[in-house]
């Protein structure tokens, strides 16, 4: 009898099941294409789902196809999922991310465009409905909505909203406040930043070519780590035309994650271990601590007293020098008047020169 060895793979069964579901979703969803070459203006390893396709010599991605008679929907995602909770740090921390993309939406009343975080199950339930999401699929979205739907509580047909597991936005902001129109056909640039430490999401929007705005259009507190605690998520951009011929194009897209380095964290000291190790030393050094404490206090008191004495002497010297000095000025000398008299004096001059002539 010949016995063949059976290979055993040391691979977690849950990862194997998740990978199988993802591969099945990829090959069961229609119109899927992979970007084999890295595009300079896009994140690498993109997967196109639904009606999404590269256009203009692969320089842009068209998410919806106006030639379809039925509602068109397209989705572009990163092939590799991300973990909102970083397992490389202890304690486990939620990661932060930043993304920005350039897009345009044609002047029709479609659903617009959305930035999405979805689970692996989303691939199995991708539909032609709004942004491809369906009921029961957990998702997070920042929608650039161009269709006014009263049933969803839309403020108008030109707003940005945040959706958490539902197309009813938890918070919205009017794009008209920026003097912009989402479905004008003009290129727009948007930035989305999530900070895991403050658990805050910020959305910015401007006309393409302008600098990143300082003030965000929309700010919302949310804990994505709590929302996606149990798994990986896919990041992508989605669009659906609804009952219109609306087309949405993406010209550039970048996405990056960041987390606090491990060396910035320190583990707290266990007080029980510290007590067990140093308990005996504390008992032996207790007497010395008391003596040193008394001497230190005495030295400080003497020094403080000497300092006060020096200050008092200095102030006393200043006070003595500033006292008023009395200067005695002698009285002015006076001259007493006296009696004066005048006396006639006779002066006789001999004129010898006259006698000499004779």
From TrEMBL:
State the Gene Ontology terms under molecular function.
carbohydrate binding
| Residue ranges annotated for the Legume lectin domain, each copy included | 45-266
Where are its TM segments located? 291-319
Which domain of life, per UniProt? Eukaryota
- Give a yes or no for keyword Transmembrane in this entry: yes
- Keywords in alphabetical order: Lectin, Membrane, Transmembrane, Transmembrane helix
Coiled-coil ranges from the UniProt annotation = none
KW Transmembrane helix (keyword) present: yes
Record's InterPro entries? ConA-like_dom_sf, Legume_lectin_dom, Leguminous_Lectin
Checking Pfam families in the record gives:
Lectin_legB
Question: Which family does the record assign?
Answer: Belongs to the leguminous lectin family.
Put simply, this protein is called Legume lectin domain-containing protein
Name the species this protein comes from.
Fraxinus pennsylvanica
């Amino acid at each position: 009898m010949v016995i063949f060895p059976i290979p055993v793979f040391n691979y977690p069964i849950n990862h194997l099941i998740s990978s199988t579901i993802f591969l099945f979703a990829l090959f069961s969803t229609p119109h899927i294409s992979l970007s084999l070459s890295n595009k300079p203006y896009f994140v690498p390893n993109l997967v196109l789902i639904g009606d999404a396709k590269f256009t203009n010599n692969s320089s842009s991605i068209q998410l919806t196809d106006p030639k379809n008679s039925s509602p068109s929907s397209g989705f572009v995602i990163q092939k590799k999922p991300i973990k909102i909770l970083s397992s490389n740090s202890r304690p486990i921390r939620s990661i932060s991310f930043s993304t920005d993309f350039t897009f345009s939406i044609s002047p029709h009343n479609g659903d617009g465009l959305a930035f999405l975080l979805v689970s692996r199950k989303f691939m199995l339930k991708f539909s032609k409905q709004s942004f491809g999401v369906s009921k029961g699929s957990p998702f997070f979205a920042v929608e650039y909505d161009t269709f006014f739907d009263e049933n969803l509580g839309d403020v108008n047909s030109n707003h940005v909203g945040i959706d958490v597991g539902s197309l009813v936005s938890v918070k919205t902001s009017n794009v008209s406040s920026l003097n912009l129109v989402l479905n004008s056909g003009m290129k727009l640039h948007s930035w989305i930043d999530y900070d895991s430490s403050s658990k805050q999401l910020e959305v910015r929007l401007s006309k393409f070519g302008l600098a990143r705005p300082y003030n965000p259009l929309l700010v919302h507190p949310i804990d994505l780590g709590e929302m996606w605690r149990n798994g990986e998520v896919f990041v992508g951009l989605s669009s659906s035309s609804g009952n219109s011929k609306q087309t949405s194009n993406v010209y550039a897209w970048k996405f990056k994650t960041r987390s606090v380095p491990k060396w910035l964290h320190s583990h707290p000291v266990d007080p029980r271990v510290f007590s067990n190790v140093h308990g005996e030393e504390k008992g032996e050094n207790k007497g010395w601590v008391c003596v040193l404490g008394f001497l230190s206090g005495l030295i400080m008191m003497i020094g403080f007293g000497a300092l006060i004495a020096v200050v008092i002497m200095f102030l006393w010297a200043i006070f003595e020098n500033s006292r008023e000095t009395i200067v005695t000025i002698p009285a002015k000398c006076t001259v007493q008047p006296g009696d004066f008299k005048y006396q006639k004096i006779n002066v006789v001059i001999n004129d010898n020169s006259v006698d000499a002539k004779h």
